[in-house]
UniProtKB/TrEMBL annotation:
The keyword Glycoprotein is assigned to this record: no
Protein source organism: Kibdelosporangium aridum
Protein name as it appears in the record: RNA polymerase sigma-70 factor, ECF subfamily
Quaternary structure note: Interacts transiently with the RNA polymerase catalytic core formed by RpoA, RpoB, RpoC and RpoZ (2 alpha, 1 beta, 1 beta' and 1 omega subunit) to form the RNA polymerase holoenzyme that can initiate transcription.
Domain spans labelled RNA polymerase sigma-70 region: 8-72
Amino acid sequence: MTTVDAELFEQHRTRLRAVAYRMLGSAAEADDAAQDAWLRASRADTTEVENLGAWLTTVVARVCLNMLRSREQRREDPFEIDVVASENPEQEAELVDSVGVAMLVVLDTLAPAERVAFVLHDMFAVPFDEIAPMIEKSTAATRQLASRARKRVKGAEHKPDLVRQREVADAYLAATRGGDFEALMTLLDPDVVLRADATALPMGRSVVIKGAAPVAKRAMASASRAMFAGVALVNGAPGLVMAVGGKLAVVLAFTYVDGVISEIDVIGHVDRLRTVDVAVMDI
């Protein structure tokens, strides 16, 4: 019997972890999935395996599918925003950037089979006929699942003013991350209003803040959290989404007037988050 030794597996671990992270949205869970795949591979007979990389991808995909189904059954609520989802938040932030916060958030709204089909085919070019047995579907049904997921991920209908709004949202995020108060002020209407629900803020109470300077000061206080945020289409307009452990934690829905932000709705309550329509922006 031929098995996979540790040295050979390590040659594939980085890619397997990348597959798992895109499926699970959590660095810690991706590590667990890769380790589980190693344990299974070390005990399996690979004598007739022709393409070890493809075979290991199948193994880790099955592990991830089981984890996604278990997660769905538990119906876990989103993390509180002050919870550290990883022992290494810098590493987690790098992984988030490699995929995109909006992508992780939208992927988290997909059913397990849809997520597996879309990630494996669209991100890692795995043929549908190889994915189908993993999710116990026909090839045709698997193709349909991926297509449905693709429409959800890229569900936005772009309008001309979205380009400018996207630029403003990008600049808002950059200014917040960089602590650039003056740059942030140029993006806000002088009479901008920020409304935040109690769950979205560490103090646990809702707030309403009026005026560009006070709103900018509040944004500066969130600089450390901004590394887990990204620009997405939020209810039809560019806004910000924050993911913790691959799950939607906070949304900043922007209203634009004359090319600047006039209102910011900061949403963190789980019931309100379920009503938010988030899509990936490809402009």
